[in-house]
Design goal:
alpha/beta, Diaminopimelate Epimerase, Chain A, domain 1, six-stranded mixed sheet, 18 helices, 45% helix, 15% strand
């Protein structure tokens, strides 16, 4: 991350905040539009809470996807001021057509942008400053850095931005990087987060150790993630008992020798399954404890908090996820725990589906692809694509594309790549955008993870368009 790029981005935030303050004087009622995943929900919550501090009558809404029809519907409401966060950079042309000239629009996004300039548009995006939005700053981070410029009191919202970054898997190397480090410094300085080095297992504060192994998918542990009996046997082989003093053994219960054996065995397990040693070693890294949350609850750990929010997205209870991020800790929180349980159970079913349907994955020369039809919920198809790719069961490593039917009768597309492929020139965000546009769809995202929506029956044509783009990106 170049220091001049950071300076430029921070300057853009200062200028954006300055323009926003001018609008506050005019008593505009802002609309905040955000994505429905963990990063988007925390981004929306950060802005909502910050604007409430300014005594503004803010209305926040989360979406599964920002489509042209959605932007048209927003325009019909004739809002004076709209803030898009964690989405919008890939839909600037539609925003210009429907909103600009009638509404003031702020876009605070970290996905790959299109190029639109308008007097009513304030667009802040890290890619325009040479900063990688897929790894160095999340959507919630963009929202936080904007609100920090509005009011220094908003530093206490940095913890939410870290939850969003973890939900966006920006700690894939075992720690947060780039602008995320600056946000993390703010969070620790505000005493809302504590950073430690530990095994990066899901549920480290709340789950039995064998369940933590089952549910850990980032990083994915081939042969263990999603396989309960295999995890039980794995711990038994290491002489780590399932229970201590009548209670299930948790990660925190391990002594130094047990923790050493577990760490070495996990890294070896991953390397044996063709995971690069560098990525295998990322099983040990930074873990983030939210100090203001109650101990031994899912909200205490950033990874569990993010998974809970993603669970609300999968079950399409976006309002509950947003309420949790806004501070709700009573009835809706209890509902969210039920959704989290359902979400993790459903992901376990997805692991089983992958094992039983592996032959349905097709080799398309420069990519792999498969279609789940209506057998897997469209809201987790991206997670399923990541599971397949990270399992390293496909060789050689190539990008993967997954299709699923939507409830509206369209086809949702999710694509995933690896860092090795990105270093060779892969950019799935551009490939999804260009290929979907050719067949009348919509798409975009990051270089390593992107998506699209296309019409039914156009899947093979779409694959051919994507293959053409990828051939142009990665030399033979």
């Amino acid at each position: 991350m170049a220091s001049d790029g950071v300076s430029t981005l921070l300057k853009e935030f200062r200028e954006a905040a300055g323009l926003f303050r001018e609008l506050i004087d005019e008593k505009m009622a802002p609309r905040v539009i955000t994505h429905n995943d963990a990063d988007g929900l925390t981004a929306g919550a950060v802005l909502h809470r910050a604007l409430n501090r300014e005594r503004l009558p803010v209305h926040t809404r989360s979406l599964k996807q920002l489509e042209a029809t959605t932007i048209e519907d927003i325009a019909k409401e004739k809002p004076e001021l709209v803030i898009f966060v964690d989405l919008g950079s890939g839909q600037l042309e539609e925003i210009r057509e429907q909103l600009l000239g009638k509404s003031k629009v702020f876009v605070l996004d970290h996905h790959q942008p299109t190029d639109v300039v308008h007097e009513d548009l304030v667009h802040v995006n890290p890619h325009n400053c040479g900063i990688d939005g897929a790894r160095e700053v999340s959507g919630s981070g963009m929202g936080y850095l904007f609100t920090r410029e509005l009011n220094q009191k908003n530093q206490d919202l940095a913890g939410l931005a870290i939850v969003g970054a973890i939900g966006d898997i920006q700690d894939a190397d075992g720690e947060l990087k780039g602008m995320n480090r600056e946000i993390l410094r703010d969070a620790t300085e505000a005493e809302v987060i504590k950073v430690e080095k530990d095994l990066r297992l899901y549920g480290r504060q709340t789950r039995p150790l064998y369940k933590s192994l089952v549910y850990t998918t980032e990083p994915f542990i081939p042969g263990l993630s999603g396989r309960e009996s295999a995890c039980v046997q794995f711990l038994s082989d290491l002489d780590i008992t399932l229970k201590k003093d009548g209670n299930f053994t948790m990660l925190a219960d391990l002594d130094q020798e047990e923790r050493r054996r577990l760490t070495e065995a996990l890294i070896l397990k991953m390397i044996e399954n063709r995971v690069h040693p560098k990525f295998a070693e990322s099983i040990v890294g930074e873990v983030y404890t939210l100090l203001k949350e109650e101990k031994r609850t899912p909200l205490r750990d950033a990874k569990e908090y993010a998974t809970l929010l993603n669970g609300s997205g999968r079950t399409e209870h976006y309002g509950i996820g947003l309420a949790i991020a806004l501070g709700e800790r009573s009835n809706l929180y209890a509902q969210s725990l039920d959704m989290l349980k359902e979400h993790k159970s459903y992901l376990s079913e997805c692991y089983t589906w992958i094992r039983e349907n592996h032959k349905r994955i097709k080799d398309g020369e420069v990519l792999y692809y498969f279609h789940v039809k209506d057998e897997i919920d469209e809201n987790v198809i991206g997670t399923v694509a990541s599971m397949v790719l990270n399992s390293r069961s496909l060789n050689p490593i190539k990008p993967i594309i997954a299709f699923s039917y939507t409830r509206e009768g369209d086809v949702k597309v999710s694509s995933r790549g690896t860092k090795e492929l990105i270093e060779k020139g892969l950019n799935l965000g551009k490939a999804m955008h260009i290929a979907s546009k050719k067949i009348g769809g919509e798409g975009g995202g990051h270089d390593i993870a992107a998506g699209a929506k296309i019409g039914k029956g156009l899947e093979e044509e779409f694959i051919e368009c994507v293959k053409e783009e990828i051939r142009g990106q990665i030399p033979p």
